[in-house]
Amino acid sequence: MRIPDAVPNAGPPPVLSFAACLAAILEVEVADVPVPTDGGEPWTPWRGWLATRGLGLLPVPEPRTFAWPGPWIAVLASGDAALAFGAPPGIVWRPLGGDEPFEAVVAGHAVVPHDVALWAPPPRPQPATGRVERIALAAEKEGPMRTVARAAARAGRGLEGDRYFDGAGTFSNAAARGHDLTLIAAEVLDALVLPSGERIAYEEARRNVVTRGIDLDALIGRRFRVGDVECVGQRRCEPCAHLERLTAPGSLRALVHRGGLRADVVSDGTIEVGAHVTAVD
Q1: What is the DSSP string of 64-88?
Q2: Could you give the CA distance from residue 265 to residue 281 in angstroms, rounded to a whole number?
């Protein structure tokens, strides 16, 4: 997702803001999105334009509770559109500015492929070898993260001393995957500056392991080792409104697609600061 530098300059505000959100989701120039200049309705041009990419717009029936770890378009009470993201969701960008809260969302639309069987993820690059920069645990949900030099890992549970090890995390679910271990790149946090000028400390990101030198996205779907502990990468650990509430305003937008990796632990062992992070396959 790429936030445009500008929005269209001709047309009613709801149409302009919606077009800008489409441009952000598809990572195209705003000028590439059709905007009727004769006052006509925009839905037919938008649907036709998206169809050339094998995509369509799907209405979201319950937008305020739409748990979608990706971008979608929220329509606010004013009629303007905004870019929403996360599970639980929050607003990451208002093309026309303003301060309408997420509670003002009255409708939503997701951009989806017409046939998901034809969609394929991009090829995975071969990750380099990285290392563990920091380890952080929280004994209870929403509790403070504390840094440790090492932590015992248990297959199917995670790190001893962490809330997810005991199934007590905010998103703990016995049927879900990817809650044993969360990782984030130190390079992301080092470069991150919020609109207020604040930075997010490593432990404030609320991930268990901070890595350096490895592409965490390249570990999705792969087995990898952190020291002698074998893990399997499940999906990106995308930010959400819950994380932003526990950190600082602006962290949701700043961490979109950069929030790290969710993984499961498949062998017992110990994770230590300085341990190597390497792909197994």
Answers
A1: GG--EEEEEEEEETTS-EEEEEETT
A2: 16
User: Does the pLDDT value for residue 157 go beyond 90?
Assistant: yes
Which two three-digit tokens encode residue 178? 């990817």
> What is the reported pTM?
0.84
| Lowest mean pLDDT across 49-53, 71-75, 82-86, 115-119 | 115-119
Measured CA angle at 84 (ends 79, 89), to 5 deg: 120
At 172 the pLDDT is 87
> Any idea which residue has 């990572």 for tokens?
27
Instruction: Tell me the pairing of strands 146-148 and 261-265.
Output: unpaired
d(CA 112, CA 21) in angstroms, rounded, equals: 14
Residue matched to tokens 């994770």: 271
Q: Strand 130-137 and strand 146-148: pairing?
A: antiparallel
54 to each of 27, 35, 86, 116, 248, how far by Cα in Å?
15, 19, 24, 10, 37
DSSP string of 232-276, one letter each residue: EEEEE----HHHHHHS-TTHHHHTTTTS-EEEEE-S-EEEETT-E
Query: What whole-number distance in Å separates Cα of residue 191 and Cα of residue 236?
Result: 19
The model's confidence at residue 8, banded by pLDDT at 50, 70 and 90, is low
Residue 195 has pLDDT above 70, yes or no: yes
